[in-house]
Amino acid sequence: MRSDLEMIDEWIQPNTRVLDLGCGPGELLQHLIGNKQVHGYGLEIDPENLNICIEKGIPVLEQNIDEGLHNFEDQSFDLVVMTHALQQFRRPDLLLDEMLRIGKECIITFPNFGHWRNRIHLGLKGRMPVSDFLPYNWYDTPNIHFCTFHDFERLCLEKSIKILRWAAVDGQLKDHWWIRTMPNIFSETAVFHVSR
Amino acid sequence: MPDTLPANSVGVVVPQIAQFDTPLTLSCGQTLSSYQLVYETYGELNQQASNAILICHALSGDHHAAGYHTMSDKKPGWWDSAIGPGKAIDTNQFFVVSLNNLGGCCGSTGPTSINPETNQIWGAHFPIVTVEDWVESQARLADRLGIRTFAAIVGGSLGGMQVLEWSIRFPDRLKAAAIIASAPKLSTQNIAFNEVARQSIRRDPEFHDGNYLDQETVPTNGLGLARMLGHITYLSDDAMGAKFGRQMRHDAYQYNYGIEFEVESYLRYQGEAFTKRFDANTYMLMTKALDYFDPAAQANGDLAAVLSRAQCEFLLVSFTTDWRFAPERSEEIVNALVKAGKHVSYTKIEAAEGHDAFLFPIPRYMNALSSFLTRVAKRLTTEVK
């Protein structure tokens, strides 16, 4: 399992109802269903990923998240998870509202654009960062709404969203004291566990 | 006509008949004292009788879903693209059962059969049957074949409604349900289309209140017209446009009511061909079964409450250009299943063919069905161990 998934796995309670937005090939759900008796559904639009999930027996629904989540009832899930996808949607702020309408709690992971390497890339080279972790060019990237660790914190504050806990990790998903002290500069991936 | 059978064909198949003498009380209150169902099977039933898949047919379908009846057949069964060795419904793994529903006109007891009590053709006197009645009779056929639990039940359109009903009525008799291009009930527009189809049959002077066979005639005009209307609703605007556009028969307008546009010719041909293989009373009865189906009605419209009984895993499939059973209608079932906490997967297939898409071997669609049934097959083998 991808290591950011491993980390949030520790935060997820057994026997809960989980909705995974952009579940990919269903790694997280498969683990949660198999080991934590979680009752889960994934949303996905990639045909290959959909088929992988169907064959593994992971409940997956083809649904374009940008077109809304109104088919899900208020507070109908214990947890709504979105890993490495928030920055790909048209309105991450409205999506966050929707996630907290559907779920009692949410876990969100995203690439921290404030990472020092990005700053150097933009500051010294004067060009949009391209790395192994973010391998796209500005014109073909699915990541249309990058934000930094602090940007997300700020959005939560503006929306009166409670941050239950957070983690900031490097490329290997390890956390170090210097990342914890200055997550906005040193974390590559930000992980937030939030509720209303 | 195939000179040799394709390797992935189930080959030449022989329909079988099951006679039932236990009376069947129908939703309408009438009882059929005896009846017969014609069916075909493909593949081998395993020792535990656990690998059976039931195919439920749609409005104009029948028991002949795959293979050929004779080597001189022009076409194989109606779902040959999906059923066979190595296909999505893999006859190397599964024992596939496909029947003609009660009220049909292809060998099962229906309006063209003889009523044993009067020794006359049933005609208009054949009772209206419902999806619930079909499922009840299908369960009896399963009993006859020694199948307690189906590994999966699969159906498109009206066939999907039967699958949905199975999951509610006999929750412990199926492990998996594939509901394709279907709906939890007809929309008003759909009922309206059905009524126009029925009226076109009933207003044909050859209809004789449904007892046309006694008069040795057939309401071909009415039935053909009903089929023409139906056919338009099964295709998408795009698909018709791509196939015919404004192609004309002649170089210039003829300024009369003969065939000018190719689409006119096509529709007339479709209508006429249908009257040669289908019975008008059966057509009307099938449209009524569609109209009446509404399982949520028993819970004041709460589909999730009704589906809370279901125990199987579900796969729902819809097609983007299907406007007769639009994706939103499949999504009503999906949302109810999610609300009820059931195991469901859903895929919306990009397809140009409209409602008819469910009969085409569209790769993404076939892959999804195949993945779903591969999982069903895997569970069978782990359960045996």
What do these coordinates show?
- With 196 residues, chain A is an alpha/beta fold.
- In chain A, 34% of the residues lie in helices and 23% in strands.
- Chain A has a single domain (3-113, 145-195), classed as Vaccinia Virus protein VP39 (Rossmann fold, 3-Layer(aba) Sandwich), CATH 3.40.50.
- Chain A has helices spanning 3-9, 27-36, 47-56, 92-102, 116-125, 149-158, 177-181, 183-186, and strands at residues 17-21, 39-44, 60-62, 77-83, 103-111, 162-169, 189-195.
- Chain A has a 7-stranded mixed β-sheet with strand order 3-2-1-4-5-7-6, sandwiched between helices.
- Chain A is globular.
- The two termini of chain A are 29 Å apart.
- Chain B is α/β, with parallel strands linked by helices.
- Chain B has 2 domains: 16-185 and 294-383, Alpha/Beta hydrolase fold, catalytic domain (Rossmann fold); 190-288, Rna Polymerase Sigma Factor, Chain: A.
- Chain B is 35% helix and 15% strand.
- Chain B has helices at residues 131-144, 158-169, 188-202, 220-234, 237-244, 262-277, 280-292, 303-307, 327-339, 363-384, and strands at 16-20, 24-25, 31-32, 35-42, 52-56, 83-84, 89-90, 95-99, 114-115, 120-121, 152-156, 176-180, 313-319, 344-349.
- Chain B has an 8-stranded mixed β-sheet, with helices on both faces. In chain B, strands 2-3 form a two-stranded antiparallel sheet.
- In chain B, a hairpin with a 4-residue loop joins strand 9 and strand 10.
- In chain B, helix 1 crosses helix 2 (158-169), helix 3 runs antiparallel to helix 4 (220-234) and helix 3 (188-202) runs antiparallel to helix 7 (280-292).
- Chain B starts with 15 loop residues before the first strand and ends with a helix.
- The chains are: A alpha/beta (196), B alpha/beta (385).
- Chain A binds chain B through residues 17, 39, 41, 47, 50-63, 71-73, 76, and chain B through 313, 315, 331, 334-335, 338-339, 341, 343-348, 364, 367-368, 371-372, 374-375, 379.
- Chain A: Keywords: Methyltransferase, Transferase, Ubiquinone.
- Chain A: Its EC number is 2.1.1.163.
- Chain A: GO terms for molecular function: demethylmenaquinone methyltransferase activity.
- Chain A: Pfam families: MetW.
